[in-house]
């Protein structure tokens, strides 16, 4: 019988605005586990390394196949999805921390509503004025579709802003994800109608000008979205609008 | 567009156009160090002899330079360190900020050494002698030499890497391939400017 174990060091917090503390858990090794399956094991039997029964660790997850982004956390110092973090590929002890750029709800669960607010700020949608039949939409060419499909894979997981040195708890930067979504909807044939409104949001406080070009976002993006290309593209669109407004008004 | 956006775009523009061009011109002038004291002083003084010189300096160098550096220093302080992400562009991000602050300190020392002190001692115009004396001093020569070496390296790096961020900010280089081309260009600029600066210094080393 194998006596192999898996050791976790988890940064815990009992509730919002409370002091965080480290707790160690040692669980029996199972082949092919991922971080979530181990968290489930801890939940079944929440006993820490000192043998004390404690409150089970709270985390969020949903799809378990790296498409929803819910289970994003900081694993061994790097932001990633815990569903695709395979134990056999991780150094032990495995440290788990909540995302540092968002307020903690409990343990590893954070409140990412700032990212949703950012999507609202850049109007990351196609404007519609009713549910009546609008007829067929514009034709989209394959090369356009190739770019748009990649951008549409963004799951608002928060990896890009977690790794970003310009995005902090006390500023109002939109972050790479929202800038990239503004690009996606500015290239959509109907979304284009409010392209200037999106650019105005990007050119407002905490907009695209807050980017510092560290390019961590594109390195950590689990969906390999060309975020720096999106930022440069939106930089180009806002440059055009910048010169235009400068000489028009 | 709001004031923050305008301030950042102006920051990007001032770094590249007046300050960057001045850096290239300034490093070019230093090549005259190899032609001896008389020729070097003549070249340097011929610029200051113009009645417009001081105004040109204030409008096209000092104001853009200090605007760029004060806003840059503020932005550098506001950045949040992300020590667990070891990527090349991230390293350049921090080197850009560190070199910027370093070069600002160097500029103050440099201005004191080449402008304020000669004016106070009434020896203004003998640019070559000031530099050469500073380098030859047995006590502080090593310090002056290292400060100038770091100052030149910091300035050429900051300018060359600034070409990358400039092209990104204004959306001139879009795709990763285009950004790679700009990076190659910036490396060439860095090597050429550093070589020119170090070659000039070798005249009085």
Structure description:
The complex is a heterodimer of chains A (about 250) and B (about 200). Chain A has eight helices and seven strands, in the order E-E-H-E-E-E-E-E-H-H-H-H-H-H-H. By secondary structure, chain A is α+β, with helices and mostly antiparallel strands. Chain A has two domains: about 5-110, Beta-grasp domain (Ubiquitin-like (UB roll)); about 115-130 and about 135-249, Alpha-helical ferredoxin (Fumarate Reductase Iron-sulfur Protein, Chain B, domain 2, Orthogonal Bundle). In chain A, helix 3 (about 140-150) runs antiparallel to helix 5 (about 175-185), helix 5 (about 175-185) packs antiparallel against helix 6 (about 195-200) and helix 5 crosses helix 8. The longest helix of chain A has 22 residues, at about 225-249. Chain A is elongated. The model of chain A has no long low-confidence stretch (mean pLDDT about 95). Chain B has one domain: Up-down Bundle (3 helical TM bundles of succinate and fumarate reductases), CATH 1.20.1300.10. In chain B, helix 1 (about 5-30) packs parallel to helix 7, helix 3 packs across helix 4 (about 90-120) and helix 6 runs antiparallel to helix 7 (about 175-200). The model of chain B has no long low-confidence stretch (mean pLDDT about 90). The chains are: A alpha+beta (about 250), B mainly alpha (about 200). The interface between A and B is large, with 41 and 33 residues.
């Amino acid at each position: 019988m194998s006596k192999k174990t898996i050791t976790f060091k988890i940064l815990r917090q009992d509730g919002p605005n409370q002091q965080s503390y480290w707790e160690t858990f040692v669980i029996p090794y199972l082949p092919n586990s991922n971080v979530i399956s181990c968290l489930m094991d801890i939940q079944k039997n929440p006993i820490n390394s000192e043998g004390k029964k404690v409150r089970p660790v709270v985390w969020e997850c949903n799809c378990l196949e790296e498409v929803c982004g819910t289970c994003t956390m900081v694993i061994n110092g790097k932001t990633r999805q815990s569903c695709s973090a395979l134990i056999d590929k991780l150094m032990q002890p495995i440290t788990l921390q909540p995302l540092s750029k968002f307020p903690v709800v409990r343990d590893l669960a954070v409140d990412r509503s700032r990212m949703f607010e950012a999507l609202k700020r850049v109007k990351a949608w196609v404007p519609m004025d009713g549910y009546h039949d609008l007829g067929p939409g514009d034709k989209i060419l394959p090369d356009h579709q190739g770019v748009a499909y990649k951008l549409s894979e963004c799951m608002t997981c928060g990896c890009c802003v977690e790794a970003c040195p310009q995005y902090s708890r006390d500023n109002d930067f939109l972050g790479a994800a929202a800038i990239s979504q503004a690009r996606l909807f500015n290239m959509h044939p109907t979304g284009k109608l409010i392209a200037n409104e999106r650019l105005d949001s990007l050119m407002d406080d905490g907009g695209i000008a807050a980017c510092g070009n560290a390019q961590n976002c594109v390195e950590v993006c689990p969906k390999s979205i060309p975020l720096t290309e999106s930022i440069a593209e939106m930089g180009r669109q806002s440059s055009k609008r910048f010169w235009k407004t400068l000489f028009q008004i | 567009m709001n004031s923050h956006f305008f301030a950042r775009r102006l920051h990007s523009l001032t770094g590249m156009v007046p300050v960057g061009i001045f850096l290239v011109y300034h490093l070019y002038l230093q090549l005259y160090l190899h032609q001896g004291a008389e020729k070097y002083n003549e070249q340097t003084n011929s610029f200051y002899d113009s009645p417009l010189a001081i105004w040109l300096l204030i409008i096209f160098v000092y104001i853009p330079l200090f605007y760029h550096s004060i806003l840059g220093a503020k932005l550098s302080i506001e950045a949040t360190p992300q020590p667990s992400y070891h990527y090349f562009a991230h390293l350049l991000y921090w080197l850009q900020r560190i070199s910027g602050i370093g070069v600002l300190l160097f500029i103050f020392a440099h201005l004191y050494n080449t402008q304020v002190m000669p004016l106070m001692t009434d020896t203004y115009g003998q640019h070559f002698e000031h530099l050469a004396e500073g380098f030859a001093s047995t006590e502080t020569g090593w310090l002056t030499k290292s400060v100038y070496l770091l100052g030149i390296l910091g300035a050429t790096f900051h300018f060359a890497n600034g070409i990358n961020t400039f092209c990104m900010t204004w959306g001139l280089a879009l795709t990763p391939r285009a950004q790679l081309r700009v990076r190659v260009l910036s490396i060439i600029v860095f090597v050429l400017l550093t070589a020119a600066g170090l070659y000039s210094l070798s005249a009085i080393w």
